[in-house]
Design brief:
By secondary structure, the protein is an all-alpha fold. It has 6 helices and no strands.
Length: 226
């Protein structure tokens, strides 16, 4: 497993852990994404360094190829001038430069292969991180929905089975007792009234009724005279 895969798996695991714990998922997911961005920056720096190695090999290889071609041309030029010793010296150095060029070619091939692989993996990592960022709102919505569901379940499980339900029942019974006591007090109050009190109360009601009747008749008379 490459470092990129490990980084992505760690980030994904942290997001899942945040959702499982339901502990301020917005902050946790955003923190995970920030950490992944920092990891991408570090990996980008590593890839850049490897690409620099590739470029250095490429430059040195190009210089070696140019030197091999120049020594070959110098050897031909020396032979044309009948200077065999100088031609031999040019060919000897050409051989050394060919060996150096071949070594540089091997180094360049390895460096380029590594750099290409790292570039591909970095592109994949960036794509996955971008995908996680795109899923941020969905993940947060799922976490919030789970938190809300837990609250509802907790509340529903407690109704009628905990202190809240017991308190509600006690208040209901207390209200019933208050009604019963009020009714009982009314009955006792009426029982304690004397016969004179009852007659006085009845006559008071009768007088009130008579006044009401007279008032109604007066209103009718006034309306008829209009």
């Amino acid at each position: 497993m490459s470092i990129f895969d490990r980084l992505f798996r760690i980030g994904k695991a942290n997001v899942n852990a945040a959702i499982d714990k339901i502990e301020d998922p917005v902050k946790i997911i955003d923190q995970v994404l920030r950490e992944l961005d920092e990891d991408v920056e570090k990996v980008t720096a590593a890839v850049t360094s490897q690409m620099a190695v590739e470029k250095r090999f490429q430059r040195e290889l190009s210089e070696a190829e140019e030197l091999v071609a120049r020594r070959d041309a110098q050897a031909r030029q020396a032979l044309s001038a009948n200077n065999e010793d100088l031609a031999r010296e040019a060919l000897l150095d050409k051989k050394k430069q060919v060996e150096k060029r071949d070594q540089l070619q091997e180094g360049y091939d390895r460096a380029k292969s590594t750099a290409d692989k790292l570039r591909t993996q970095l592109t994949e990592l960036k794509s996955r991180v971008t995908e996680m960022k795109d899923q941020r709102n969905t993940l947060i919505a799922q976490a919030e929905a789970a938190k809300t569901q837990q609250k509802i379940n907790h509340t529903m499980s407690g109704v009628g089975h905990n202190d809240v339900g017991a308190t509600f029942n006690r208040m209901e019974e207390k209200i019933k007792r208050m009604h019963d006591e009020a009714d009982a007090a009314y009955e006792l109050a009426n029982e304690d009234k004397s016969l004179d009190d009852k007659f006085a109360e009845a006559l008071k009601d009768a007088r009130t009724t008579a006044v009401d009747d007279e008032l109604a008749a007066l209103k009718a008379e006034l309306d008829a005279n209009k």
